[in-house]
Amino acid sequence: MSRVGIFGAGWVGLVTGVCFAELGHEVVIRDVVPEKIEALRLGHVPFHEEDVPELLERHAGRLSYTLDVADLADSEFLFVCVDTPPTYSGDADLSAVHAVVDAMPASDRHALVMKSTVPVGTGSAIKRRFAETGKAGFRYVSCPEFLKEGSALADFRRPDRVVVGDDGDWAGDAVARLYEPFAAPLIRTDIASAEMIKLASNAFLATKISFINEIANVCEALGADVVEVARGMGLDARIGPKFLHAGLGYGGSCFTKDVSALKLLAGNSGYHFQLLNAVIEVNELQKRRVVSKLQRHLGALADKRIALLGLAFKPNTDDMRGASSIVLAARLRAEGAEVRAYDPIAEQEARELMPELHYASSAEEALGGADAAVLVTEWPEFVQLDFSRVAATMRGKVVIDGRNALDPQAVRAAGLIYEGVGRR
Ligand code: UGA
């Protein structure tokens, strides 16, 4: 069994940590935020992800948490799972990674394993840093992570593939062995290609979403139904059914950040990545289309009461980063509407970003007296709402299904007006 050090106690860091502890490895997780480390020592996970708290408890004997980099000196693998936000030039802000490298003693038995999503070229930059600081013995491996929030454990334990980009030394082989128990297809490649696999995968998924959103918008104009269209397209094995759900646009920290990073990287190298401009623009407009739909039904939105069902960027997470609800709520308020929002898990995170919103403590409360309701996040409890009761409590009749998750017939049978995204 190995000793695994992890920098960063976010989604990727903690899930990587518990999954390696589950395999029997000794794991030390280091973060710079004292409150996070304190909370973890007490068994509290600083974000909402199903089953992670139970696993932390079950494998507590093999997991420890620290603020001190020195506690990771015995770890052969140093997984970097910290934020590497893009700078304006499209390069990653590597200060968190440099802090890690600088704090480690020179060594020829450590491998720095990059899990964070970073621009292509980051591996070379860090290796230069190793050389400049007398740490040329450090090995570097790019091992991008593909887990999704909300199904993070399942994704980590059953990955579609494991990508290991390295310089052909012991470290790449050792990381590949660490992942052997997951029995996933393994891609061994060079570091730059591994970095590009991650960025290109996220950019492609975002493109798929913007594509189906544009098809949805054309369906609205031409009287076709995008759910039927996606079903028919998805059965073509070359297309596949996943990531063809039209809606309010993609949110989250990853797609937004990575599509821009790839566009900027291409730009820095002299290539104009036209397609990604469209992907970004379509996504921005998609969030705003709801406002014109509401205006079509209600006229001017001043003093209209709009219920937002769900705020998180997707269900099963409390993550508000890049959530479509942020733009939507701001636009509605700018039009003079009164916004009443409810999210079963993300309220606290949302309050920090949008303190001015009125937060309801249940879907029923948000819907009470509303002129229109917008389903923003497809939490199961919204899909299961009894729409005859909803109709009785609302002042108006309009239900905009921003995720095509509701049963249009059930909504209409309750006497309400149903409008999805790209639905007939
Ligand atoms: C995404 C990728 O799916 C992961 O593979 C990747 O590891 C991760 O980014 C990352 O780079 O860290 P995540 O952002 O957690 O994962 O969430 P997704 O499930 O991909 O959803 C992203 C957004 O797209 C959500 O707002 C979701 O509602 C939206 N979406 C997704 C659609 O609008 N339509 C779809 O068909 C699928």
Key terms:
alpha/beta; Rossmann fold; 2 domains; binds uridine-5'-diphosphate-glucuronic acid
Description:
With 424 residues, the protein is of the alpha/beta class. The chain has 2 domains: 187 residues, 3-Layer(aba) Sandwich (Rossmann fold), CATH 3.40.50.720; 194 residues, 3-Layer(aba) Sandwich (Rossmann fold). The protein is 44% helix and 13% strand. The strands form 3 sheets. The chain has a 6-stranded parallel β-sheet with strand order 3-2-1-4-5-6, with helices on both faces. A 6-stranded parallel β-sheet has the order 11-10-9-12-13-14. A two-stranded parallel ribbon has the order 7-8. The structure holds uridine-5'-diphosphate-glucuronic acid (UGA). Uridine-5'-diphosphate-glucuronic acid binds next to helix 8 and helix 10.
Q: What is the CATH topology descriptor of the largest domain?
A: Rossmann fold
Give the rounded overall mean pLDDT: 95
Instruction: Kindly provide the radius of gyration, computed on alpha-carbon positions and rounded to a whole number of angstroms.
Output: 23 Å
- Relative helix content: 40-55%
How many beta-strand segments? 14
Largest sheet, in brief, is: 6 strands, parallel
Straight-line N-to-C gap: 57 Å
State the domain count: 2
Sheet/helix structural class: alpha/beta
Strand content: 5-15%
Spatial order of strands in the largest sheet: 3-2-1-4-5-6
The hetero molecules present are: uridine-5'-diphosphate-glucuronic acid
Query: CATH architecture of the largest domain, please?
Result: 3-Layer(aba) Sandwich
Q: Note the overall shape.
A: globular
Q: CATH superfamily name of the largest domain?
A: NAD(P)-binding Rossmann-like Domain
The helix tally amounts to 17
Low-confidence stretches: none
CATH class annotation of the largest domain: Alpha Beta
